Amino acid sequence: MSCCAAGAATNLAAERAGQRLPSSEELWLASRDLGGGLRQTELSVPNAYCGACIATIEGALRAKPEVERARVNLSSRRVSIVWKEEVGGRRTNPCDFLHAIAERGYQTHLFSFGGEESDDLLKQLILAVAVSGFAATNIMLLSVSVWSGADAATRDLFHWISALIAGPALIYAGRFFYKSAWNAIRHGRTNMDVPIALAVSLSYGMSLHETIGHGEHAWFDASVTLLFFLLIGRTLDHMMRGRARTAISGLARLSPRGATVVHPDGSREYRPVDEIKPGERLIVAAGERIPVDGRVLHGTSDLDRSVVNGESSPAVVATGDTVQAGTLNLTGPLTLEATAAARDSFIAEIIGLMEAAEGGRARYRRIADRAARYYSPAVHLLALLTFVGWMLVEGDVRHAMLVAVAVLIITCPCALGLAVPVVQVVAAGRLFQGGVMVKDGSAMERLAEIDTVLLDKTGTLTIGRPRLVNGHEISPGRLAMAAGIAVHSRHPMAIAIQNSAGAASPIAGDIREIPGAGIEVKTKEGIYRLGSRDFAVGGPGPDGGQSETILSLDFCELACFRFEDRPRPASRESIEALGRLGIATGILSGDREPVVAALASSLGIANWHAELSPREKVEACAVAAEAGHKALVVGDGINDAPVLRAAHVSMAPATAADVGRQAADLVFMHQPLSAVPFAIETSRHAGRLIRQNFVLAIGYNVIAVPIAILGYATPLVAAVAMSTSSLVVVFNALRLKHTLADGKPGTPATLMHPGAVTS
To answer: Of 347, 515, 610, 698, which one is least surrounded by beta carbons within 10 A?
Structure first.
């Protein structure tokens, strides 16, 4: 089964192939501004297939001084490049990145979501399998007469007919291997297709030599049958990779291809979703999906937001509400204002999180890539030594060549190259089905190592939608003033104050939000503060079991707002599940001690810390690390971003603040906290399957290589064995879906399927 394929290496070749390379300005417009003078570009590299491809492409890009970092994702055939806008006072030309990749022999163009290319390749592979199978069947029929003792003239005739059938079949069906091998060699490198192309060619060449010399034996049937089995293996590999990525492709289909844009003059135009710009007005009819993130300008409707929050019940949206791409408009037409381009939308972010899982530079992945990179030269050397050895022992060129060909085939490291990525893709898909997005493949590896979970309270252990319970006790003027300050924040308590006050005019002044404390507004009357008691009035107050926010003017308390919040669904069951997994649980909260103590007691958590600043949360995480613990931190707020970055691995709910979601390694979509033990158990099982795949791949070579060297495996047997080893690795990885889907004794079904629980 092949792993590397070739493509056009130059602009001329790209033009001949009908591909128009994007200009520098197109690449600038298509890139994403990351801030700090950095931009990010996504390119498609459809001919990247293995660890050697990753090393070659990433190495070519990292050699450029403009490139900050580059990462290839084999699953989506995609390279993500983060680059500097200027180097040495010179504006960066992104076309240099395309040329650098093309010089290594890989075709590239701007990345766009879609599966057409993959489907075309599958059709070509199936057709190649059919051609090679048809040729192999007919050549075998001719070989029967030869094996039955046909006379010399008949034998030579059948050999020539077999040669005429095998030649075109090898050229057509074997083009995948030959193109890839030639592309690698002419660019001064090797890949996994080189030994395969060499083995098939040598087998056919030896048979043709025997036919010309009126030899008794020829191996045309073995050559074509060998190619037939190799193509079957490659086709199944391609199908398995596609099956492993069904979650991603299914999510990509949630984004519509286009939408109706309303121009200022009232005219309408249907435009592809990639061409919709922020600020444009869109019409979304009932039954259509929202094309890009936006804000409702006119209309009221029910929205199916299950892709966002896992909730099955529709949510009502009206003028002023925000909507996310991929959600389904159920009942009425809506007029929207686009607030983000398609590549920056919610659905694109989630797809990016899914695809990033397979491209992570985890320790296992680095080991497999390094092994695959140096494996091909070792295979060539081993085959050469085998040929020389048999020549010294027997002196029979034909037999020595057959044994060397068998060694070339049987030692192809495809199983080793598939050992890690196929498990990561399946695990990421399984996590997605459970409502968990993975931002980096290494995050799953780190998650499998943790022995401690540290959780934030508001928005993490609770649903993060506190309700103001004493609003009737506060004067309307003070409530309106607090709401005017709260509109500058997205903190859950600030939102609760806004909801209780209704429409409120923002207070003008010098506004500053301090993570973990509150909002400060400098006005002519003085300094208003809305936040924790220490922040607002500079001292302690009466204890209570409810969360509170204080409104003050120059440290004088004006009003005290008290809130209640519900724990997330399945919180206690999730804490118990973590205990069964042997994981200690703790709380790191900035809320007041009585509130945190009450929640910890109700959930059965003995280790908790309250009234922590963002710095103190980081210090608590560092103390756990110094004690030898590897901690998972789960948080959602701006004040949690530092500790999420400092943790061994981190997780945030999808409702978290943008900065918290970006800082986390994993994001869970559904309300139940059961996503945490579910993600840990999935990661642990994925780690076990990766180790099993390493054992299977290495064990196969330990057993198969000596057999081939000793001459007990023909090229045909070697092809079957090599393809079988790769498929065993793939099928072993796919067990992850069924094992976790079935659950384990003593594990609640809701914890195995987090999306099944709703509030």
So the answer is: 698
